[in-house]
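Reviewers of the previous submission asked for a worked example of the structure-prediction workflow described in the proposal, so we include one complete record here. The input consisted solely of the amino acid sequence. No template or homolog information was supplied to the procedure at any stage.
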Amino acid sequence: MVNTEAFIKRLEELLQYYSLSASALADRIGVQRSSISHLLSGRNKPSLDFVMRVVKTFPEVNLYWLLNGKGSFPQSTDHKKPQPPTPASEKTVLTKSGQDIE
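From that input alone, the workflow returned the following structure tokens.
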């Protein structure tokens, strides 16, 4: 059984680490924004689907840490904060001798 209050604190730590709002987290893991709000308020308990979406989306999140506080966060050994992903719609355009190269 997951201690909901402790889970909320770990979820808030995750939000702070990634500099995400609750809405941004919901969008990243593909759940409704109200789901995050209900979790953070303690109204709802985390579902298995929710937990697995978080772990799949954020590889630095240790499943056992998220569920019961055992282990470490971030899970990576270098403890380096990951850079936010670049949107796929952005392209880098290089120029060479006056010609655009994509």
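The chain is about 45% helix and 5% strand. We consider this example representative of the routine output the project will generate in years two and three.
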